Amino acid sequence: MTIRKEVEAILAHLGVPATTGNLTVRTPITGEVIAQIATITPEAANKAIAQAHAAYLEWRNVPAPKRGELIRLLGEELRTNLEPLGRLVTIETGKLLSEGHGEVQEMIDICTYAAGLSRQLAGLTVPSERAKHRMMETWHPLGVVGIISAFNFPVAVWSWNAALALVSGDAVVWKPSEKTPLTALATQAIFERAAKKFGGVPTGLATLLIGDAKVGEQLVDSPLIPLVSATGSTAMGRAVAPKLAARFAKAILELGGNNAAIVAPTADLDLTLRAIAFSAMGTAGQRCTTLRRLIVHADVYDKLIPQLKKVYGSVVIGDPGAQGTLVGPLIDERSYNAMQKSLEEARTSGAAVTGGDRVPTTNDEAFYVRPALVEIGSQTDTVKRETFAPILYVLKYSDFADALALHNDVPQGLSSSIFTMNLREAELFLSATGSDCGIANVNIGTSGAEIGGAFGGEKETGGGRESGSDAWKQYMRRATNTINYGTDLPLAQGVSFDID
Ligand code: NAD
User: Fold this and answer.
1) Hey, where are the domains in the chain?
2) Whole-structure pTM value
3) Which CATH superfamily is domain 3-255+462-480 in?
4) 232-252: per-residue pLDDT in tens?
5) Residue 445 · residue 276 · CB < 8 Å
6) Protein residue with least CA distance to atom 7, ligand 1
7) d(CA 238, CA 263)
8) Does any ligand 1 atom lie closer than 6 A to the CB of residue 239?
9) Could you report the per-residue pLDDT of 337-381, keeping only the tens digit for each?
10) 254 is catalytic
11) d(CA 291, CA 274)
12) Whether the CB of 212 sits within 6 Å of ligand 1
């Protein structure tokens, strides 16, 4: 069966009606066209946003634990469809089958989390300084949440946002990446089945808009959308952030990373090697948390780097659906060209490049590469830029303070790791003067976060937080309430204002 036929079968199984249209969808596995689908017009998008707003006005009246029931049902539908949706993720993004399945598992996990959360959207009660007064915080639904997502986590990012937003009493409007619209259509069909089992939800509660960046801009510009959660490149964030700020809308920005790990002299090198391999080469270097910089102590450099080169030389590259493959394709030719450009720049600055070459396949339109290990003397501009491909820049250090300084000397601040058995170094790395990233790990790689923790980064990574912890608060608005149950009217701070 061709991949196109397989896609048609999966979509039919998941309940996505066959469509045709002007958006060409390709699989990076072979580069072949797997679908032609319709995009939304600006007028229809505006109508859909208005419909979502009307849905929110109804949905906010549904008690939060009942809203949680919808998300529980969504989790159940996803469980039932883990296999086909996971396979579709693999076909559309080129990530390994276990990662495609893992992405759907992540959706299920956030649904479980959000269903529980729906009974815990609690505010504080705060002691009032005034007698017979009670002060408390109440969390209310916010409105329509706009979700703009990237190609590399085509459905998990929607679920991180949608599960929390929907239990919070919001409606969601989703603009997925134009490179991965089929998994979005499949997810929407799955949501609609859950909504039906729930007994129906207001029309437009979860809306999908297929289109390019222009549709994303409509979400950003719409006065009916008080929060936009945008995941993608820093360039996208730079375009989106000022527009949201200009209309005082809230933003969750999940942008590019340039993640590093420090390997200290006491590191458990076997564990370190395995962690680096997954973080740097996994998902063909196309995770926002991919390990891109390795800062290795001089004492272990000559032991670790030859071992790493061996792994880089032998890792199996090919069809992400095949047993044994560890590195699948890049998303497209643009990505391949960006990788080659960065490698060329590194070579020009004197770096020694191992790997990085294209791995030939029978199809010219598929872009498989051997991951590249780049030994480089200093942190050049090329190293400081995120290239969304499997390039690992390796730097040597002797002094821990220098390693930390190198670590933080990039514009991005998403994920970071240290490999050490030295408690002082580990704690320092996690302290206020250590890693400046939103995620800082010890003896574990930079990628592969769990949904229970708040996910996001600092600096040019945008400052947003999604998923667990108290990230839900961004999807709600907070009201501080003070109730006087006495007969006097004392003013705060002892202010007097007697009118008789
Ligand atoms: P991209 O920036 O090209 O596109 C992301 C999304 O933004 C797409 O849906 C696109 O249509 C939309 N978009 C682009 N310009 C826009 C604009 N001006 N207004 C509104 N919408 C716009 O990113 P990509 O190539 O799909 O994904 C890779 C990038 O995403 C990498 O930089 C990666 O680090 C980042 N990423 C970050 C996270 C995170 O959580 N920090 C997660 C995944 C991916």
Assistant:
1) 3-255+462-480, 259-442
2) 0.97
3) Aldehyde Dehydrogenase; Chain A, domain 1 (3.40.605.10)
4) 999 999 999 999 999 999 999
5) yes
6) 232
7) 33
8) yes
9) 999 999 999 999 999 999 999 999 989 999 999 999 999 999 999
10) yes
11) 12
12) yes
